[in-house]
Design a protein that fits this description.
elongated, about 80 residues, three-stranded antiparallel sheet, alpha+beta, about 30% strand, 6 strands
Amino acid sequence: MKVWVTKYALTEGIRELDVEIYEDTLSIVSYRGGYLVEYFHGEGKDWHKTEDAAKTRAEQMRVKKIQALKKSITRLEAIKF
């Protein structure tokens, strides 16, 4: 099954992978890359069935990260020595 993975979208980008559905649940998929097996949890969170859904999630992640960084900058600017 082909999916788009956004778990590491802000560092690695969106990855298109051919995965297998994990035996115990339909919301976990696994990808075997050589000896390493990666698991991605939650359709709509870590992995997506469509590229458009993955792009939407990655954009949400980007916006949330920018907000967190702005908050950190504001806090650092307020510090006086």
